[in-house]
Amino acid sequence: MNDLKHLTTNWAAAILALGLIVLPSLYSWINVEASIDPYAHTDDLPVGVVNEDRGAELAGHRLHAGDEIVKALKNNHQFAC
Q1: How many structural domains comprise the chain?
Q2: Which residues cross the membrane (predicted)?
Q3: Domain with 34 in it
């Protein structure tokens, strides 16, 4: 109770206490607001694909997984090509 009396009589201590209350709350509010929906504005985000797959041979069959992945991405209409 004595500390609260000192806060009301000393303006510098009151400002410091108020700052220690408000600043962390403001910081938390900004961070929560920024991370509520991180995918809201990714519609026009450019996507690039690099395929350096040289392929492999497995059980006598030639396998090019990189080409198959690129084909699947081109056929996916959620990406603008």
Answers
A1: 1
A2: none
A3: 1-39+55-75
